[in-house]
């Protein structure tokens, strides 16, 4: 079981710049990875990003305290590995997590890494520092952290309000790099400084992103690459043609649809291509605090109107998964069983009956054959968003809703939905780890910056806390399923499908591991090489 999001994690090289005498199959030094990027990120700051368009090019600049083993296909607690931390331990009845830090690590500008940097990073994320992040989509991850304390330069502790076993999983996410104290959040947006295998060179908006090898990387001998270059190409067809022509070593991760995959294989038969779950749900976001979607009947009607199988058949030729908030089984650990899922209104197989129920709700709200509801359906200007948005608009016609597509550029999309400046949106939600705490607190807790729909149910939030403290997976799963079912019944953020997508790379690319359930955790590139 593997996931394509992490495909670039150990990805590729492209142009060999020095001769080598290594044995066949042995990694070679040198080369520059050439990859196209699907769009232009708003900035270079991972802590402020809400899209893996930031993680893909910039994760290699940084290190985490801990990280999932990049050579093992599926993330799990057993695959957590130390990184900037050498070790960790729990104390105080599992309410204190202490890390012993690695010594001798330097930031790319030569300054030493210490415990102060860890404290600065997480104080920043928790909103406790004088400096502020412009956007802070994952602040809710740390609601249970009282404070960060240091003991000397190489020990740091997270003091918790209550036990939260998932904290380690979230610290291992690609969204949790450690930032330097001495560089401002504003500078990290334009010229990030890290401790990772690659150093930032330049970011030209709508043109390119370039990284170069860190010769002083604390993992001796790594990385193998001399650098990484991303060319920003927003037209997917143009980018794929360039890959087929050999201009790029690898496609942008999880950017290839099933039909396009067939085209690539016919034109570049030697390319390696994989299709895997992405741990990204395509969903509907509704602004529940403003008319007309402050009316629960209209929100429920929208959910009942969905023909999920049609989305899967049209966009993926049947190769996608229908589920709730959590990644469906078997790739996902926490996905609802199918029989439980089908008890949720709108998930049943009789689409026509669901839509008849939806029409009754719309008529109750004052709409019908002679009075349609006109809405703008906002979505991000990427094919992965636009294509399902068009299908959604077509399906909503069946229940007296006339949708108009409102396309928003990437740099504006997340600020727009975070400030609730939309009526109804077609959204993609990437889960950076396969753990309910990440998904529930980030997307559904009251006041979370990434709770785009303003959903707030204090009773459900109490259940978030109950499942969060349960250390026995077999006991935790039913709690998670009940919460997930309730979120769907409340129309908090109707899930349409969980995508599968393809990624291709040239035959000389070596050192790739594809993870099954971690969208954002593997774009480090430090072990990748090319046999060319």
Strand order of the largest sheet: 13-12-14-11-15
CATH superfamily of the largest domain: Periplasmic binding protein-like II
Query: Structural class of the secondary elements?
Result: alpha+beta
In total, the number of strands is: 17
Q: Total domains, how many?
A: 2
Question: What's the quaternary structure here?
Answer: single chain
- Proportion of residues in β-strands: 15-25%
Give the C-alpha Rg. Answer: 23 Å
Helical segment count: 15
The percent range for helix content is: 25-40%
**Shape descriptor:** globular
CATH class descriptor name of the largest domain: Alpha Beta
List low-pLDDT spans: 1-23
Main location: periplasm
InterPro entries: Peptide/Ni-bd (IPR030678), SBP_5 (IPR039424), SBP_5_dom (IPR000914)
GO cellular component, one term: ATP-binding cassette (ABC) transporter complex
Family: Belongs to the bacterial solute-binding protein 5 family.
Please give a handful of descriptors for the protein shown.
532 residues; four-stranded mixed β-sheet; disordered N terminus; globular; D-Maltodextrin-Binding Protein, domain 2; Dipeptide-binding Protein, domain 3
